[in-house]
Specification:
It is a single chain. The chain is mostly helical. The chain has one domain (3-92). It is built from four helices and no strands. It has helices at 3-24, 28-42, 49-67, 72-92. α1 runs antiparallel to α2 and α1 (3-24) runs antiparallel to α4.
Length: 93
């Protein structure tokens, strides 16, 4: 498995946990928005994974703010996705 595939798998795991937590807490709208971003990673791998990760982090941040909650789990996921994007970008250079 390549490094990119490993990173995709790790991000998927974070998103699945966040979606499950949102559902358990009755945050169905947030769970739906997280699921939408998770599905984007299940599509054929993009040519620009860094851009996709940053886009997903932006969408999650918007969803997180719109939900009006301070959810450390989703916040950690956003931080992880942004760090992963930076690491991949550095590796690609």
């Amino acid at each position: 498995m390549s490094d990119e595939q490993d990173e995709i798998a790790a991000v998927l795991q974070y998103l699945e946990e966040d979606e499950r937590t949102a559902l358990e807490n009755g945050r169905n709208d947030l769970a739906d928005r997280i699921a939408t971003q998770r599905r984007r990673l299940l599509e054929p791998p993009p040519t620009d994974l860094v851009h996709l990760f940053n886009d997903i982090a932006d969408e999650l941040e918007t969803a997180h703010q719109a939900a009006g909650i301070d959810d450390i789990l989703t916040g950690d996921t956003i931080t992880y996705i942004r760090k992963t994007a930076k690491d991949l970008d550095r590796h690609d250079r």
